[in-house]
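Need a sequence for this fold. Nothing fancy.
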C-alpha cells in the first residue's frame, strides 16, 4: 500500500516501521499523557472517519502499557504509538517532516496492524464477557 501526498510524491509503507524504531517506553508513556488531545483530534476533519480506530489504538496501547494485554508483538504497539504521535504532532516526530495527511498515516497503521487489532478486539470483548457474569 502506497499513499500519495502533495506533488505526487509517495510515502512508503515502511514509514511507520522506521518511525516505530525510534520510539522507546519513555516516549510511549509521554504519548499516553496526551490521550485526551489525541482523542479530540479524532473527532475533526479527515480523521473523523477514523475515530473508532484511533480510540481502539489508544485503548490497545494503554492495555499493553499497563500490562493488561500482551497479545500483540512490540512492533505492532510501536507502530500504533508512532501513528498516534504523528496525529498528535508530526513536527516533533520527524527531523525532516513529510507532509502526509494524518488520516493517511492512520489508514496505513490500520492496514499494517489489522490482524493484531482484530485479535485485540476479540480479547477486549472476552474481557467484558468475563465481567458481565
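Here you go.
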Amino acid at each position: 500500500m502506497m499513499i500519495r501526498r502533495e506533488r505526487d510524491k509517495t510515502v512508503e509503507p515502511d514509514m511507520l516501521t522506521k518511525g516505530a524504531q525510534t520510539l522507546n517506553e519513555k516516549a510511549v508513556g509521554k504519548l499516553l499523557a496526551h490521550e485526551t488531545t489525541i482523542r479530540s483530534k479524532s473527532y475533526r476533519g479527515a480523521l473523523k472517519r477514523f475515530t473508532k480506530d484511533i480510540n481502539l489504538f489508544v485503548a490497545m496501547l494503554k492495555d499493553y502499557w499497563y500490562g493488561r494485554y500482551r497479545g500483540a508483538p512490540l512492533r505492532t504497539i510501536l507502530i500504533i504509538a508512532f501513528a498516534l504521535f504523528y496525529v498528535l504532532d508530526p513536527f516533533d516526530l520527524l527531523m525532516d517532516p513529510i507532509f502526509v495527511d494524518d488520516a493517511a498515516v492512520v489508514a496505513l497503521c490500520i492496514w499494517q496492524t489489522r490482524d493484531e487489532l482484530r485479535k485485540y478486539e476479540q480479547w477486549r470483548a472476552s474481557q467484558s464477557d468475563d465481567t458481565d457474569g
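For context: Helices lie at 14-20, 25-32, 35-41, 51-65, 74-88, 90-93, 102-132.
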